[in-house]
Design brief:
The longest helix is centred in the N-terminal third of the chain and has 13 residues. Strand 3, helix 5 and strand 4 form a beta-alpha-beta unit. The protein is built from 6 helices and 5 strands; from the N terminus they run αββαααβαβαβ. It is an alpha/beta fold.
Length: 147
């Protein structure tokens, strides 16, 4: 068996990171990479020290909120948000980095990624948020679907 490509390698790492997710609806993992070096990771779940949705149930399910809508009605942070926050906590610059993510970002995360200076996005699965794609394309961020 040959060595995996860099995109395959980092997407596989993002998939392992997603296994830490406590979300009941979708497990998402993200890794920030620059110069083929792993900078930060993130998965979706409740803020540090707070009860997880696995313990309390999913508010979005209870309210029957469709996927891709009303992100504020969730106690969890998204994987991309946690990867950005981890960079801030540890003083790691992610400007010019590539984000490898198991799912396409939502529009809120897309705006954060744009302002964080991400230059490339590699995603394994889609997400129903057309505004996110529009914003990322307008910002000139290269989007590579991983299949």
């Amino acid at each position: 068996m040959g060595r995996p490509s860099w995109d395959s390698y980092f997407i596989e790492i993002a998939q392992v990171v997603a296994s830490r997710s406590t979300c009941l609806r979708r497990q998402v993992g993200a890794v920030m990479v620059k110069d083929r070096r792993l900078l930060t990771t993130g998965y979706n779940g409740s803020p540090t020290g707070l009860a997880h949705c696995r313990e309390l149930g999913c508010l979005r399910e209870k309210l029957q909120v469709p996927s891709g809508e009303r992100h504020e009605l969730c106690r969890g942070l998204h994987a991309e948000q946690n990867a950005i926050i981890q960079a801030a906590i540890y003083g790691v610059s992610i400007k010019g980095a590539t984000l490898y993510c198991t799912h396409f970002p939502c529009s809120l995360c897309a705006k954060m990624l744009i302002n964080a200076g991400i230059c490339r996005l590699v995603v394994a699965a889609d997400y129903p948020d057309s505004l996110a794609r529009q914003l990322l394309e307008e910002a000139g961020i290269a989007i590579t679907p991983f299949r």
